[in-house]
Amino acid sequence: MDDYSFIEKNILTVSDKIYAAAKRAGRDPKDITLICVSKTKPVEMVAKAYECGRRDFGENKVQEITLKHPQLPSDTVWHMIGHLQKNKVKKAVALSEYIHSVDSAELAQAIDSEAGKIGKKQKILLEVNIADEDTKYGVSPDALEHFVCEIADLKNIEICGLMCVAPYTDKPEENRAYFRKMNDLLIDINAKSLDNVHMELLSMGMSNDYEIAVEEGATHVRIGTDIFGERVYTK
Ligand SMILES: *Cc1c(COP(=O)(O)O)cnc(C)c1O
Q1: Which of 46, 70, 77, 155 is 20 to 30 Å from the Cα of 62, by its Cα?
Q2: Rounded CA gap, 144 and 230, in Å?
Q3: What are the φ and ψ backbone dihedral angles of 132, each rounded to 5 degrees?
Q4: pLDDT confidence of 232, banded at 50, 70, 90?
Q5: pLDDT digits (tens, 9 = 90+) for 15-45
Q6: HEC profile for the chain?
Q7: Rounded distance, CA 220 to CA 111, Å?
Q8: 140: CA distance to ligand 1 center in Å?
């Protein structure tokens, strides 16, 4: 038997840090959801985190959600957080409570269409390339409002919020300005009172910068390494 007790310890540590960051910012810690990012990790690790009370899990590949979904209790909440290809939309819609990585009108339309077929209103977040990095997915901050207007009429999606993957850095303080900008974008879009658009969620902050993200308004942090350990990619 593998000993996964480290997962319980890690969850406690991360939860404590989220709690403290929320308090520092005058926020209610209950307003922050910890998404355990289980990509590349075996389903037994997900089950361990579930046993520790976690319910929200994030994967960046539809194949991995497909594999793990049937092996976890039905109150497990799956978040698709990775780049989504069109040919995977049907499965992503069938299995994910939230899709965080919507960054084109074509993708939003495909999600809307598949959701309609199964009578679902799919919750989505819009991915923003907050630092305008060439290597990252997401719409640029300048294009966000236009994007929102393009998809606001789709009936089978609910635009819940914004998501970003901030630049990789070992100085998390450097990402504070980006997280603040995400929060500003959310406030700006809501202030326009567009029909069918009211966004509440901010999915931002990963293992190296989530405390800063919480201080700047994150409602969902996505933590992989700090809970399940380093990922090993074999190819
Ligand atoms: C892998 C991944 C994470 C988690 O990253 P860690 O640095 O391991 O916490 C969060 N968000 C996305 C989109 C990811 O792909």
Answers
A1: 155
A2: 33
A3: 50, 50
A4: confident
A5: 999 999 999 999 999 999 999 999 999 999 9
A6: CCCCHHHHHHHHHHHHHHHHHHHHCCCCHHHCEEEEECCCCCHHHHHHHHHCCCCEEEECCHHHHHHHHHHCCCCCEEEECCCCCHHHHHHHHHHCCEEEEECCHHHHHHHHHHHHHCCCCEEEEEEECCCCCCCCCCECHHHHHHHHHHHCCCCCEEEEEEECCCCCCCCHHHHHHHHHHHHHHHHHHHHCCCCCCCCCEEECCCCCCHHHHHHCCCCEEEECHHHHCCCCCCC
A7: 22
A8: 20
How many angstroms separate the CA atoms of 148 and 85, rounded?
20
Query: 200 is written with which tokens?
Result: 């509440």
- Measured CA to CA, the distance from residue 181 to residue 203 in angstroms comes to 13
Side-chain half-sphere exposure of 87, counting CA atoms within 13 A? 1
Report the chain's mean pLDDT, rounded to a whole number.
96
Calculate how far, in angstroms, residue 207's C-alpha sits from the geometric centre of ligand 1: 7
What average pLDDT score do residues 202-226 get?
Answer: 98
Q: Is the pTM of this model over 0.70?
A: yes
C-alpha span between 46 and 42 (Å, rounded): 7
For the chain, what are the domain ranges?
6-228
Q: Which fold has domain 6-228?
A: TIM Barrel (3.20.20)
Backbone angles phi, psi at 111, to 5 degrees: -65, -45
Residues with CB under 6 A from ligand 1: 37, 39, 60, 81-82, 165, 206-208, 222-226
Q: What angle do CA 68, 203, 62 make, to 5 degrees?
A: 25
